[in-house]
């Protein structure tokens, strides 16, 4: 069976096979989808291949030292997930491996009949025990979603960059987007793994034209195209963890806010309160959202059970809630349908009660 890309652009454009009669099938889910400390991750990225979904992300621990590697989960129904393998096993990397650090926010994209794995990491040394001084982007490829993956090139950029994502346009040109004290972009030649020209920062968190809800920090880009317009999802941790949306008529911008407010996420005044005070934005006026989460962000888009586009990201319970089960104390996978309303994308939620989608 020919594998399918994680985003079905034909359906995203509203063309293709005729949909099934409404209500012929149902899909029920309750977030967070995973409830298991053993497969806890942040920054979930899902790709559908054949009749299965595969998921990768940032494994625990996130902030201290280096984490175990690049984990791959698999599911037959998008509800029940199990460990498949380690695409990169940190225990098997040598001490002088230049990417043996933290393995943040990996993604897998199916482009030009191959799978391309982006990994964000650096080298752990005695002077840099978390590998952050050399933290950048590494590109791997494979003929199968499950690997094995072979290093193509890295580091792709000369400075700290993170949260790399890929986007192939209709003309076959591929683009790299990433974060790193703002959002960055460049063309990339996948065959060589080399950027075409210099990577450019095109938006900083504290740019003069940014609204207050972006000033804490922006990260986690993901790009798709609809009816000739390019849309970029991104996350911000200013008021909690929220997803904003940019749009452009070109894959390299200029990018403008598609909506004056985030299209998804959770707001909690005490979220990273110390960071907000230190950053000078603790006085932003907003009310907490009623959801039970402190984080729902760093989203990516994938093909859901109904053949339409869905959003995935990590759902992390508000740690002020007591008592919490062990699985609620760490981030878990959450999913929601992606909608297109009034010329922009929208994501309802985040939800925590049973949901049913008819299709």
From TrEMBL:
Pfam families named in the record: Glyco_hydro_43 (PF04616)
GO molecular function, one term: hydrolase activity, hydrolyzing O-glycosyl compounds
Keywords per UniProt: Glycosidase, Hydrolase
InterPro entries: Glyco_hydro_43, Glyco_hydro_beta-prop_sf, Glycosyl_Hydrlase_43
One of the GO BP terms on file: carbohydrate metabolic process
Gene3D superfamilies associated with the record: Glycosyl hydrolase domain, family 43
UniProt site (Important for catalytic activity, responsible for pKa modulation of the active site Glu and correct orientation of both the proton donor and substrate): 163
Domain of life: Bacteria
Active site: 43 (proton acceptor), 219 (proton donor)
Family under the similarity heading: Belongs to the glycosyl hydrolase 43 family.
Protein name in UniProt: Glycoside hydrolase
């Amino acid at each position: 069976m020919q594998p399918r890309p994680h985003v079905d652009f034909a359906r995203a454009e509203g063309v293709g096979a005729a949909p099934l009669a409404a209500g012929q099938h149902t899909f029920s889910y309750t977030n967070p989808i995973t409830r298991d400390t053993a497969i806890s991750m942040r920054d979930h990225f899902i790709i559908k291949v054949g009749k299965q979904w595969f998921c990768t992300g940032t494994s625990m621990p996130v902030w201290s030292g280096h984490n175990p590697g690049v984990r791959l989960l698999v599911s037959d129904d998008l509800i029940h997930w199990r460990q498949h393998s380690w695409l990169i096993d940190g225990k098997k990397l040598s001490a002088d491996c230049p990417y043996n650090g933290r393995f943040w926010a990996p993604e897998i994209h199916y482009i030009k009949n191959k799978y391309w794995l982006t990994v964000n990491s650096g080298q752990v040394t005695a002077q840099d025990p978390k590998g952050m001084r050399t933290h950048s982007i590494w590109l791997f490829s494979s003929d199968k979603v499950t690997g094995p993956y072979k290093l193509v090139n890295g580091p792709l950029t000369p400075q700290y960059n993170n949260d790399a994502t890929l986007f192939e346009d209709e003309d076959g040109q591929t683009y790299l987007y990433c974060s790193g004290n703002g959002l960055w972009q460049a063309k990339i030649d996948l065959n060589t793994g080399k950027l075409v020209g210099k990577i450019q920062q095109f938006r900083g968190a504290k740019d003069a034209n940014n609204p207050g809800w972006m000033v804490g920090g922006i990260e986690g880009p993901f790009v798709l195209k609809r009816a000739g317009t390019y849309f970029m999802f991104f996350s911000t941790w200013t008021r909690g963890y929220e997803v904003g949306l940019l749009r452009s008529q070109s894959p390299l911008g200029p990018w403008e806010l598609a909506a004056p407010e985030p299209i998804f996420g959770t707001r909690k005044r005490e979220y990273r309160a110390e960071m907000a005070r230190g950053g000078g934005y603790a006085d932003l006026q907003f009310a907490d959202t009623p959801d039970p989460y402190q984080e729902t962000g760093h989203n990516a888009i994938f093909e859901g059970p109904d053949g339409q586009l869905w959003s995935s990201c990590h759902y992390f319970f508000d740690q002020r809630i007591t008592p919490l089960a062990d699985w609620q104390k760490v981030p878990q996978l959450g999913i929601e349908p992606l909608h297109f309303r009034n010329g922009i994308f929208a994501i309802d939620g985040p939800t925590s009660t049973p949901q049913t989608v008819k299709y």
